[in-house]
Amino acid sequence: QVQLVESGGGLVQAGGSLRLSCAASGSIRSINAMGWYRQTPGKQRELVATTTSAGNINYVDSVKGRFTISREYPKNTVYLQMNSLKPEDTAVYYCNYVDNSYNYWGQGTQVTVSS
Prior knowledge:
Elements: E1 2-7, E2 10-13, E3 18-26, E4 33-39, E5 46-52, E6 57-59, E7 67-72, E8 77-82, E9 91-98, E10 103-105, E11 109-114
Parallel strand pairs: 2-11
Antiparallel strand pairs: 1-3, 3-8, 4-5, 4-9, 5-6, 7-8, 9-10, 9-11
């Protein structure tokens, strides 16, 4: 199994910044992907950014140029630096780990951006 521990959410004014962290532990496989998704009430969970063990990175268009995902080895910690935050970025952000066998989610951390 894989455990994911998230931190870093909170309340920030529009234009501000936050950094989310997600530490993975347990049965980490060498080939995997980690990333961040977000969800607001009544909507499906959407991909925000992902990074693979091969170094591939993907962002949803709405955060390109504002958010940066990075990963620290060998701690298997993934970060999401969020700059120029907008009220529409308000959501619960979930860390995700996936390999060829398993798909794990963190408990979620609330990000609220006030206008």
